C-alpha cells in the first residue's frame, strides 16, 4: 500500500482566536521592565523604561496584525507626551529616577497616538530663546512620578527676582481623543493632585467641562498657605541639620539644609509668595530673609569642612567656587526678600562677620594667592566686627601666615633670579676677558 504525503498547513497567527492574539500583544507590547535603565543621553533625573521583550517587529508582520497590535498597544499603554519650552529642564525636577520611554525629539514627534499632551512654556523673555524644545514620551502610569517631582518654582526664579511681583509658568493639557469620564479623571488626576501655584493652566480637547474646571481650580491653589507653618517647616530643617552637624554627621546635615533651602527658594519664587507676604507681614519677610542668609552660610560651612579633608585634593577648587556662590547669595538675601516688600532685614554684625570669615577662609583653602590681599581685608573686617570670636581670630592668624609664606617664597625667588643673572653676567664677563687677553 502506497503512503501519500500530505503537507502540513503553515502556522498562521491570525488563525488564533482574538483573545489569544490579544494576550500575545499584551505580553510583547505592554509588558515593561520594573528595573529602570540609566541612559547617558538623558538628563540626570530621568531613567529609561524599556519593554520587557524587544519584539516590536510584530507590528511589521502584515497590515492586519499591525492594525490590531497598534490599537491594542495604544489603548493599553496610554502614552503621554510632555513638552517643555523656553527653560533649562535640568532645573525642573526635584529627584532622580523618573521613568520615561524616550527624550529623542524626532521619535517623540513621529509618534502620533498619544492619550494626552502636556506642555509647560515659560513666558517670553530674553533667556527663553537660549533653550530648545525638550520632549518626553512616557507611560500614563508613570505620569504621577513626573508630576510629583516637578519644580516649576525654581525654573521661574529668574523672572521673580523682585519681592513685589510674580510671573507664572504657562501650562496646557490636551486630551487627544474622547475618553469615558472615568478615563478622563484617571488621566488628569496626577495633575490635579501634585501641581499647585499654576493659575495659567488650560485644558483642551474632548474633556468634561466640569472636570476641567475642577482640575484648573485645584492646580491654581497655592502650595504654601500659612506663613507660620511654612517658617516652622524650614526652621525645622535648619535645626535638624545643626543637631546632625554636632554629631559629626556632616553629609546628613548638608542634606537637611539642602532640603530646607530648596523649600525656601521654591516658596519665594511661587505664586504663594505674594499671599504669604501679605498675611505674614514684615515679620514673615524678615524671618525668611534671615533663614535664607543662615542656610547659605551653613552650606559654605559644610563645603569648607569638605575642602579640608585628606581626600579633597582635586575637589578643593570646585567646592570652593560652590561655597563662594553661597556666600554671594548671603549678600543678596536682603535684596531678594526684603527690598520691594516693605521689610527692613539686614544681617547682624555677627552674621556679617561669619560671612566675611567664610569668604577669607575659602580663598585661603583654594590657595588663591592672587587674592590674598582681599583675604586679609575680609578677615580683618570680620575680626573688627567680632573681636572675641575664636574661630575668626585663628583664621586671621592662618591668613596672615599664608600671606607671609607667599611673600617669603616670592623674596627667595627674586633673590635666586638676581643671583642667576649676576652669575650669568659674571660668566659672560669672564669669557670676554679671556677672549680679550
TrEMBL record:
InterPro entries: AN11006-like (IPR038883)
Lineage, top ranks: Eukaryota, Fungi, Dikarya, Ascomycota, Pezizomycotina
Domain of life assignment: Eukaryota
Protein name as it appears in the record: Uncharacterized protein
Record organism: Cucurbitaria berberidis CBS 394.84
